[in-house]
Each structure stands twice: as structure tokens, then as C-alpha cells.
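Q: How would the C-alpha cells look for this protein?
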Amino acid sequence: MRVVSLVPSLTEAVAVTLPGALVGATDWCAHPAGLDVTRIGGTKNPDVDRIVALAPDLVIANEEENREPDLAALRAAGLEVLVTEVRDVPQAFRELARVLSACGAQDRPGWLVDAAEAWAALPAFEERRTAVVPIWRRPWMVLGRDTFAGDVLARLGVDHLYAGHPERYPRVSVDALRAAAPDLVVLPDEPYRFTADDGPEAFPGLPCALVSGRHLTWYGPSLAEAPKALGEALRAARR
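A: Here is the predicted structure in C-alpha cell form.
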């Protein structure tokens, strides 16, 4: 089986589970470290000709991260394209199982079993907190409706205030974000790299949780450690 992945999360999942199956991945596929495959451009601008030249048996993609015109071009070239949709944690597990099976896995890998157990073991959060979750600045953009990251946070006791917004990633002014009066601000390090010196200063007086974007937004092996890592970062923001 020869696989090209257009999604960093899926790249890591396939590489860890089926070593040698991947022959191509995007420039943004940074995990696992040292992955030695042909790079085929970005998630939004893959080099279709280079992908075709790799003669993959399967291209794996995601409806949010990849553009339909690129996927249509790959199909027109005769390639099989599997497109995932991930809007919540249960769907992530279903789609990961589907992808790995399509790539040749015979059984559920240990990391996927561990991840499912970690998420199933979460306690009920009687005391819930509200948050705004910027994912970009200049302009400011936040998590809106129907997002995987929003579901991750909800399962960890944090309800983001734009979950009912008509858009999935709305632009909202920083003044409006402050006026929403959240209990905390969740600042991931991707896609925008928020840091202690870039982000919290825009929200004076509000607790800010600096979190790993990989744990918040990726669906792959990182799911196993995400509840613990994110939980610790969210609790630290109380202080």
C-alpha cells in the first residue's frame, strides 16, 4: 500500500501505525519527527503533479483542511481519495479507524485504544467555565460552531462562547472578545503561534491558558495524551 497524506494528524496516525506505507505528505506534516517521505506542498496548495507521480494507492484528506478543487484534480488523474470529516471526538475515533483500515491496518493500534480509554475516563465537570478561543490575530478569529477543538474543550469542562455562531471560525474584534467576559481565554500555539508574550497582553485581567495546538486540534496519536496535557494547562489558568 502506497499512501499520500494531505493532513498532518492523519500523517502521524498512519506513520506510527503502518511504518513504510506513507510515500508522501505535506510540508506541514511535522510528526513523527524525522519522517522521511516526499513532500508535496501545503494542505491548501498541494502539488498535484508530484502526488500523481508518486503513484499512490490512496490519498487521504480532510474536508476542512483541504480544498475540493485539489481533491477533484487528484480524482480526475485516476487516484483514489478518502476524505474525512471530524467535528467531534467520537467522530475522530470513527474516522481514524476508517483511515487506518483503508491503509491496510488489520487491528486497532495500541495508541488508538489508549486514546479511547483516556477520553472515556473523563469525569463529569460540575463546575464548568466559559472561554473564548482565538486561533488567529490580525485579524482576530475564534472557534465558532461545530468544531473538533470546541468539542475537545467541552469534554474538559470548558464551554466556548461562540459555539452558537453561524460561522465555524468567525472574525471577532478583540474588544468584543473582552466584552464577552469569559472565565478564561484559551490560546493555542497553532495555527497562530500564541505565546506568553504574544496574546495574553490583549486580555488584561483575564486568565489565559496557553495550550498545545497539537493536543487541541489534532486527531491522531496525540489524542491519548491530550486530556491530561490540556487539563493541566486549563487548570493552571486559574492561578
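The first helix runs from residue 8 to 17.

The first strand starts at residue 3 and ends at 5.

Upvote if useful.
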